[in-house]
Amino acid sequence: MDGMLSQDEINALLAGMDSGGGDAGGDAPADAPAADDGAAPVGGGVIDESLLTDSEKDAIGEVANISMGSSATTLYSLVNQKVNITTPQVELATWETVINNYERPCVFIQIKYTVGLDGTNILILKEHDVMVITDLMMGGDGTNTEGEIGELQLSAISEAMNQMMGAAATSLSTMINQKVDISPPQATLLDMINDDPSDIADFLTGTFVRISFKMQVGELVDSTLMQLYPIDFAKTLKDTVITGDSGGGDAAAAPEPAPAPAPEPAAAPMPDAGAGAMPQMDPNMMAGGMGMPQMGMGMPQMGMPMMMPQMMNMNIQPAQFQNFAGGTTIMAGGENIGIIKDVPLEVTVELGRTAKPIADILDFAPGTIIELDKVAGEPVDVLVNGKFVAKGEVVVIEESFGVRVTEIVQ
């Protein structure tokens, strides 16, 4: 009556604003539930968890773990820093959940499988992580992370991902027993807020598989690396790998060799001939891995005869390991240079420098002479990406200036 609202009326209005979404009123929920839910921090009701079972998530995570293990080894050779990529976490996600749960801007690296598999794989790295990795690749100490990512950094991280995912493709080839190849990666810096996911990849407009890895690079990076798959491709990848592991047609043929080694039950009375049996198995067991004795112990009469022909036909070679003594750093450095030879660098020749107060600079005019800190005839400095690498003397080539390198700075 007096124009004032009671506390109950205020509470009712606030509750209506919270549930109604502001100006949307009662009309929004009828035709736009997906848009409202998708903007929620966790994606609202958009994600249908039944699209992927727990067993499928475990299988996809195992495949990703094996692939990323190979990638970590490759990244170590590129940056000469200890690289640790932990066990992945597999979950369903939408574009909204990625935006809300990951630092922006970030770098999207899209890789397409061209041979053996048909699908798309997207890696997401934080901007700071890309700056650290590319600085290490180009001979820095990983601390030159000022400024924004440019074409130089995007080109370098694309080459790094090409090497890493190439190693992952090799691991997949081993698992499915057929060649797997990828297209050259495409790296893009995105803020995600103003980007349309359909412009990046069609599967990002719906629900997809997100695999999160904890990534550590020396003491410089302790971050999260994300890998995105379409759901259909993730399931196909899981089915392909499982089929490759089980052997498909080989599984049906496996019981057939069992009757052939049947005449070898001589291996069964191991208590009497144990000393004679062990020397026959020991070399293969040592090279074949610790998994063999466990199967043999579980099936003492059937397991051993079935495994013996397989072990005898295996191609066993001595293990070869990289020598970390002495010149390892030089070798690694040489490999790094070979990998990034196509990355463009900016070469600058500096005639000299000087320091002037602001008052003198304001007095600059056409014809002003500025005295530099170099003596006439003294070599000029050659800088690559701002780093002093050489000295040289100025020469004239037809109508252009040039520099003849006279000294390389160690």
Q: Tell me the CATH architecture of the domain at 53-246.
A: 3-Layer(aba) Sandwich
Structural class: alpha+beta
Helical residues, percent? 40-55%
- Give the helix tally: 15
CATH topology of the domain at 53-246: Chemotaxis protein chec
| Topology pattern, helix = H, strand = E | HHHHEEHEEHHEEHEEHHHHHHEHEEE
Mean pLDDT: 74
Task: Describe what you observe in this structure.
There is one protein chain. It contains 15 helices and twelve strands. It has 410 residues and is α+β, with helices and mostly antiparallel strands. The strands form two sheets. Strands 1, 2, 3, 4, 5, 6, 7 and 8 form an eight-stranded antiparallel beta sheet that branches. A four-stranded antiparallel beta sheet has the order 9-10-11-12, with no helix packed on it. A hairpin with a 2-residue loop joins strand 11 (387-397) and strand 12. Helix 4 crosses helix 9 (231-246). It is flat and about 75 Å long.
Short description:
The chain has 15 helices and twelve strands. The chain is an alpha+beta fold and 410 residues long.
Could you outline the blueprint of secondary structure elements for this entry?
Elements lengths: L6 H14 L7 H4 L1 H6 L15 H26 L3 E3 L3 E5 L1 H7 L4 E10 L3 E8 H11 L13 H26 L4 E2 L3 E5 L6 H4 L7 E10 L3 E9 L1 H16 L2 H5 L16 H19 L2 H8 L4 H10 L15 H12 L7 E4 L7 H5 L17 E5 L2 E11 L2 E9 L2
Antiparallel strand pairs: 1-7, 2-7, 3-4, 3-5, 3-6, 4-8, 7-8, 9-10, 10-11, 11-12
